[in-house]
Amino acid sequence: MVLRMQMKVVMGRPSLADEEVKPITFRLPVSKIAALDRRAAREGRTRSEELRLAVDDRLMKA
Questions:
Q1: pTM of the predicted model as reported, rounded to 2 decimal places
Q2: What's the rounded Cα separation, in Å, for the pair 46 and 39?
Q3: For residue 45, what is the enclosing H or E element?
Q4: CA nearest 15: which of 55, 52, 40?
Q5: Which of 1, 5, 37, 52 sits at a 20 to 30 Å CA gap from 61?
Q6: pLDDT in tens, the chain (62 residues)
Q7: HEC states along 5-41?
Q8: With left for phi above 0 and alpha for psi between -120 and 50, is residue 59 left, alpha or beta?
Q9: CB 27 within 8 A of CB 36
């Protein structure tokens, strides 16, 4: 008797969240993007990490 196990192969980077995530796109003035990038660099984070923190902070105050 031969047992076969099926494994799900997941491509790409591991998720940063415990739930399904979807990408979003929005526009910012170039000056705000530059300020965002400076802050992210100063804090040792990526642009995406800095944006996630900003969104989380805003939602916590809601």
A1: 0.70
A2: 9
A3: none
A4: 52
A5: 37
A6: 677 777 777 777 777 778 898 999 999 999 999 999 999 999 999 999 999 999 999 999 97
A7: CCCCCCCCCCCCCCCCCCCCCCCCCHHHHHHHHHHHH
A8: alpha
A9: no
